[in-house]
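## retry 2 of 3
previous attempt timed out at serialization; input unchanged, resubmitting
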Amino acid sequence: MDALAFRKKIGIVVPSTNTIVGPECEALRPRGVTNHVARLTIKQ
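## retry succeeded, writing output
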């Protein structure tokens, strides 16, 4: 069992140009939930 994510783990995929989603989601997450953010490269 994960000590930090004993309730839920949330995966978030965002474009590489979006730099605010990670901190915003971190501020909104409840206790026992962890966020895992991945960025997709945008070539244009």
